[in-house]
Amino acid sequence: MKTYTAASGYVYQYYFVGKRDALADAPEAPATEYVFDVSPDRKATYAVSVFLKPEALDAWRSSKARALTDTEQYAAAKMRLLRGFDEAEVIRSHVSMVVDAENVGELLAEIGVE
Known about the structure:
The protein has one domain (2-109). 31% of the residues lie in helices and 31% in strands. The chain is built from three helices and five strands; from the N terminus they run ββββααβα. It has a five-stranded mixed β-sheet with strand order 1-2-3-4-5. β3 (32-39) and β4 (46-52) form a beta hairpin. The chain is globular and about 45 Å long. It starts with a strand and ends in a 5-residue tail after the last helix.
């Protein structure tokens, strides 16, 4: 269990549940889905999905001349989750977020991945 204080002042607890290929009928498919359980109040826990789009991997490979490692892919998903905490007033139900070609570089730059 990890803790994150969002810009809104909420203190979230979260943990990584796992990853899988996005379900075929998911609007974000095709993608890799990273699932986190999140609690904004230590009472209720909600599933939050972060979808890593193949276009994000392609954009990274094109701009950096190397592929993202599995660890770096997880880092991008986690950084998107934390940004989502900062952007939302409070996360209280199943939410999905996306790592795409437009935000993968800036998400990883926040933690020094080049």
